[in-house]
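Hey, I'm writing a tutorial for new members on how sequence and structure tokens pair up, and I'd like a real worked example in the thread rather than a made-up one. If someone can provide the structure for the chain below, I'll link this post from the tutorial.
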Amino acid sequence: MRTKTSVMIAFLIAASSSAVWAQSDFRVYGRINTSIERQTVGGNSVTAMVNNNSRIGFLGSESLGNGLSVGFALEAGFQSDTGAGGWSNTGLSFDRKSGVYLSGDFGKLQMGQAGGNSYLFVADYGVLDQPNHDTGSVSDALYLDIVRGTNGISYSTPTWNGLTVVGAVSLHEDEPSTQYKNSYDLSANWALGAWSFGAGYTHNGKGSQWGTRVHYTVGAFQVAAYFQRSNDTAGTICNNGGAACGQRNNARMSAMYTRGASEFVVGYGATSQWDQVADSSARQLMLGYNYNLSRRTKVYALYTKLNNSANVKYGYGFKNGVAFGQDARTMGVGLRHEF
């Protein structure tokens, strides 16, 4: 009797649980992206296994009726080469994304790790995301992303004739690292058939930036370019004794040709000098080849070369970092799988 009762209780719990989940949606997703590279920085070379921003995430949503829905997003990075969590061998945490939102005909309101979209609408759109999803050592090292996403509130408009506008504010909460300032971001994307245009503006206690982008698709070709104007007060990118770097311009152009499962990518970016620091310009060349084994899996080859002037240190994803005035380059092969 007790066994039958236990089975009945389990059945009722399962049935009730199924009724709840029938009105909801829950999904686990992620990406594992790992490469083997020969990296050279300042004349010193190393053969390394490199994690290219691997992550795992959880998405959930529920329909509330009358066109309203509520949902959440949690995303954590991990080191695919070591298995450790976080950005640099720390514990697993949802510092990539953590937010709850309410959406409807009015748009989407989100709170949490909810930074603005300037980076996504300007520097990480379409072919500018190639050859390796703007991750690892082959990522765009010259774009200055200064938005704070923590303690954030963002609002996205509905899409009107291809136009989407996103506004965000990140509350300072008297944290010393924020220089006691709120962070603001305003961005827009306008898709018009083969053409797409993007723009973004960010301001916080550490500086400001604005940028514009154009993207065009014709047949098997994609081409895109952006321009950015930055004002930096943190003084960490330039060699100026910790003082502000000042202002500088940055531009990038990328192109991709697709043939069957193959994608051929080339990108080039350059910055002017910071106006407060001499010898502070930089250039970056990127080359890539992707072979898509399926919609979720690809193998790839990559190459990038960074030329830093004496008083800057652009570079991301290099095992031992990049110092002022050091040039950096890498070439390698990798495997990426999405789930």
